[in-house]
Amino acid sequence: MNKGTFIMAAMAFTGIMLNGCGESPKEEATAMIGKSDIKVENGVMTPEVLWAMGRVGTPVVSPDGQRIIYGTSYYSVEHNKSHHTINIMDADGGNKQCLTATPANETGATWIKGGSKIAFLSNEGGSNQVWEMNPDGSERRQLTHDKSDIEGFLFSPCETKIILVKRIKIKESTADIHPDLPKAQGFVVDDLMYKHWDEWITDAPHPFIATFDGNSIDEGKDLLEGTTYDCPNRPFGGTEQLAWSNDSKKIAYSCIKKNGVDYTVSTDTDIYLYDTENGTTENLCKMNESSANYGYDTTPAFSPDGTHLAWLSMKRDGYESDRNRLCVLNLATGEQRYLTDGKNGEKAPLFDSNVDSYSWAPDSKSLYFTGTWHGTTHVYNITLESDLKQITTGDYDYTSVTPAGNGKLIATRQSISEPTDIYSIESNGNITQLTAENEHILSQLPDIKVEARWCTTFDGKPLHSWVVFPPNFDKNKKYPALLFCNGGPQSPVSQFWSFRWNFRIMAAQGYIVVATNRRGLPGFGSEWNEQISGDYGGACMKDLFAAIDDVAKEPYVDSERLGCVGASFGGYTAMWMMGHHNKRFKAFIAHDGFFNMEQQYYETEESWFTNWDLGGAPYENSPKVQKSFSNSPHRFVDKWDTPILLIHGDRDYRILSSQSMAAFNAAKLKGVPAQLLLFPDENHWVLKPQNGILWQRTFFGWLDKWLNKQN
């Protein structure tokens, strides 16, 4: 439920369900779904308009720096499907072309053979396999004919080897154990981590090392043969969790080598170095006790000159929202340094927030990374000596960055006003937009105003919020306002663009949106970020009240028409506030929130989260534990008197749907107006187009009913 879960996951599907399609790779579309030509009626952004927008994936620059390939996803509400294409353009944004205009889903494109070919995944034959084609889309040819779906791939630098990510069976089915019961659906569970995110654990992703002769790829050998570990890491890891050494002889990979209860209570994920020639494996995070790291280590990448290996590293075991540091290992000397911690002797971290994504500079002397500070996510450069420089500015979120030669960077950027597009960043600071995927839609919509606003907390600290105003805002009118309560709980309220929790569509319906960086969010220093653990009903809630009270004083805000909405921890927040808001709000919406914290402790699959944030099990008598569980929303139902909408996915195994059902039942038994929207086929998110439209219609229908919207 941390930032990694909700922000990085959106970018990390390199070859594994690229752009979050949420469909089986075996499922082929009956017709190609392409760019929408939707006409926006009266300039109003509706759910249908939002889902008509194309979604741009991470760009990959050609070896000569002259061309860029990138994925785009389109969604059809009518067919309730998504479609994924591969596109190419010149490095200056010219000569755009869709290379895969077929009904098949095609993802994970990368350059091979010196840039003369493009390798990609396609389900054209009914299963996901590796293909290649020319840069103009011609001479398509299937390279793998594996009996399993290929979920991701990574060619070695010499291109004679390739890593194929495939699923292996790790648990016998009921039919295996009881051949006379082939239709029985039950299975026996003997240990924990039997479910994760939205699936019952019966298999595991493993990297297979295969050979490539230039024409075909064999099925390969399982690098983790005989184990049940996940690699890439479940549930969101892709091929960014694996890296080839420059000489193609070694593979660095991220893995948590634990099972059962040990896996459920730990985040101790390490970086391993596998030697393809002798089959040996070295744990780079546990080389010696003095430098051993027991937190979450992921995303390895070798420097272009092969002398160093970088990765992202959290320090503390069990804390999935620990500060994500940029670690670099000198492969010759074994010296390991955390660059964003700063130079030796510095007391405070050089960058006191998370490194979200990164890439090496071509000269191997520095790295570029993206990180959030004060509600925006920007590109930074840091040298191996920990000299830090911010590259970009403005009210934006940069979500990926990669060098393109001659000092140029290629990045993806989004904001509260606009979805993701691709940009180039010149060495002189000039920024050029290379794609405008949704300009034909955005040009039909009136602009909105987004302002940063600061107020003072109950204990005198500065508190940042984004305030989003409706189109054609008139300060002489009064508007209803929504307090957005973020999830995670430690995910930043930055300039993100969401296809569900979208501030622009909320503003388009006539609401002022107040999105607050309350205590427990990154981008304001580690102390601020960590003040939420063990204090769920404390300072973070006072911060949210302070933010909405501050904005509600404005003459253009109708303080009698305030709503409170949120998902995950934000859903918990809405349910907690139901018993504490002192008549501030007229309506609540809680999506995938937890209602009974004691039940949540025993239900969730990632026990490390509840152990860290709540302090331990409900039966423990420590002050932190008792304080945590005393703030369970179910304890305050006697004070509930405000209409609430509960939304939940039945395939959400992080926070079970029983939590929203219990809250709905409690409200109805208490006589409080309530509505329950359940999705039998969705997880912690809502991925299917028609479900997404239903979500939005129900969301705004509830707000409009109880806030009595008037312009």
Number of helices: 14
Query: What is the β-strand count?
Result: 39
Mean pLDDT rating: 94
Main-sheet strand order equals 32-33-35-34-36-37-38-39
The profile of the biggest β sheet is:
8 strands, mixed
Alpha carbon gap, first and last residue:
37 Å
Question: How much of the polypeptide forms β-strand, as a percent range?
Answer: 25-35%
Gross morphology = globular
**Low-pLDDT ranges:** 1-29
- Decide which structural class fits the backbone: alpha+beta
* Rg over alpha carbons: 25 Å
Helix coverage percent? 10-25%
Protein architecture, described:
There is one protein chain. The protein starts with a helix and ends with a helix. The chain is of the alpha+beta class and 711 residues long. The protein contains 14 helices and 39 strands. The chain has an eight-stranded mixed beta sheet with strand order 32-33-35-34-36-37-38-39, sandwiched between helices. Mean pLDDT is 94; it is low at 1-29. The longest helix is centred in the last third of the chain and has 19 residues, at 689-707. It is 16% helix and 31% strand.
Summary tags:
globular, five-stranded antiparallel sheet, eight-stranded mixed sheet, 31% strand, 39 strands, 711 residues, alpha+beta
Question: Can you describe this structure in just a few lines?
Answer:
By secondary structure, the protein is of the alpha+beta class. Strands 32-33-35-34-36-37-38-39 form an 8-stranded mixed beta sheet, sandwiched between helices.
